[in-house]
Amino acid sequence: MTLGADIRDQIGIITEAEFAEAIGVRVETLATWRTERRGPDYVKFGKSVFYCVDHIQRYATENAIRLDEAGIERAVELERDRLVPTRHLE
Questions:
Q1: What's the burial of 51, exposed, middle or buried (CB within 10 Å: 0-12/13-18/19+)?
Q2: CB 43, CB 85: distance < 8 Å
Q3: Fewer Cβ atoms within 10 A, N terminus or C terminus of the chain?
Q4: Domains of the chain: which residue ranges?
Q5: How many CB atoms lie within 10 A of CB 53?
């Protein structure tokens, strides 16, 4: 492991390339999401973009899609430490 990778691991961040590969999108897609204010929070050091693992986990939880009793997808949001249905997804 390189010094930079070791430091990133210690503080819990990954590069945008690592995040893009992990979720199966292109780095350009992440850049688009940032300009559209979508996706998890990120950190910049100079021109380099990183994602905090904690922010990714929180974003995934807050934007989870669940099936209701009828098998219909519904978005859920975190409300007072629990997930509640908020809207029907078509």
A1: buried
A2: no
A3: C
A4: 3-53
A5: 15
Q: What is the pLDDT of residues 30-44, one digit of tens each?
A: 999 999 999 999 999
pTM of the model: 0.69
CATH of 3-53, one of 3.30.1490, 1.20.120, 1.10.10, 3.90.1570: 1.10.10
Question: In this structure, is the dihedral angle defined by the CA atoms of residues 61, 62, 64 and 70, taken in order, positive or negative?
Answer: positive
Strand partners, 9: none
pLDDT tens digits along 77-86: 544 444 444 4
> DSSP string of the chain?
--HHHHHHHHHTEEEHHHHHHHHT--HHHHHHHHHTT-SS--EEETTEEEEEHHHHHHHHHHT-EEE-TTS-EEEEEEETTEEEEEEE--
